Amino acid sequence: xxxxxxxxxxxxxxxxxxxxxxxxxxxxxxxxxxxxxxxxxxxxxxxxxxxxxxxxxxxxxxxxxxxxxxxxxxxxxxxxxxxxxxxxxxxxxxxxxxxxxxxxxxxxxxxxxxxxxxxxx
Length: 121
Description:
alpha+beta
């Protein structure tokens, strides 16, 4: 059973909609900023994933769904059991810690990007 997190930034999109008087380039620029941080989550999770054969680490993925909406997870059938543990085996999380490490940096980066874009407008 794979595990996947739906990173839907609709809250940010609502803020962006309220700022609609600004350039149409605002959302795509913020999307690219978010994309770079989701890539960092991917890289961090690859470093945190327990490795025996490398299959689990190789199954980690991320992809954009829409503007400011991404999915990030691991497709290996046993990924959920590694991430959350079972009644017999302790959890060895690798996705959630990667998100926890990158999330605060991503929020700061998004705020800086929005500020930069608003100052240019």
